Amino acid sequence: MKSWEGVGEAYAASYASLCAGTHDDLVRRLGPAHGRRLLDVGSGTGALAAQLADVGWSVTGCEPEPTMRAVAAREHPLLAVIDGALPVLPFAGAQFDAVTANFVLNHVPDPRAAAREITRVVQPSGVMIATIWVVSPSWFWQGVAERAGLAAPAGTGLPPDKDFERTSAGFGRMLSEGGWHAVDVSELGWTWWATADELWRSAEGGVASAGALYLSLDASERARYARAFDRLCEEHSLDGRVALDHRAAVAVGTAR
């Protein structure tokens, strides 16, 4: 699995705006807040948690990476963000009325154990919403690597007994096996109009598989990678931005 160590600032300057593509949809699916308690697991730089607080939820964020928490503290100083990670959360059972996990369960080492832990901290019949990527920007970075004559980032994956099919149906089955009830999965698609600077900040800052590949290169390989990146951006840019289509599986379930 990909390491997110030390990438808070680079993520905030790049992929944070991509992952925000689901935020409005998650807020809508949760319904009226009425001051109820919500846990945002893997809250990252705090953007979703802050948006949920703005519409009336009593929000706690939970994020294990200190550089992510540092960005959250700077950008959202009133937001409570706790150090903690799935599959063992630092909260009592049935402590929250709802839980969100936006692009989190596609990164954990044991997705089913993580799903079960989410059900533990939710009130009976509490709402749980999670997302994973169905279509991600991996094709773009694979193209960069190929043009640079480098091995495309492949990721390390999970052992077969821990992994799940990265489709909407596979995501729903995994969550049901992890104890979620009445799981309903739909797909949400959008276009991320990214600037070349946003994309490059993600690679140079070590974000995701492409960033891990870039940081592993020597100086001459990095120069080739940068030239290939510039060429691909030029080919796919419109008015200075690169159009990247994305699709997420959005799952809604209850704890019991």
TrEMBL record:
Residues 39-129 form the Methyltransferase type domain. InterPro entries: Methyltransf_11, SAM-dependent_MTases_sf. It holds the Pfam family Methyltransf_11. It comes from Microbacterium murale. One of its GO terms (molecular function) is methyltransferase activity. GO terms for biological process: methylation. Keywords: Methyltransferase, Transferase. This is SAM-dependent methyltransferase. The keyword Heme does not apply. Gene3D superfamilies: Vaccinia Virus protein VP39 (3.40.50.150).
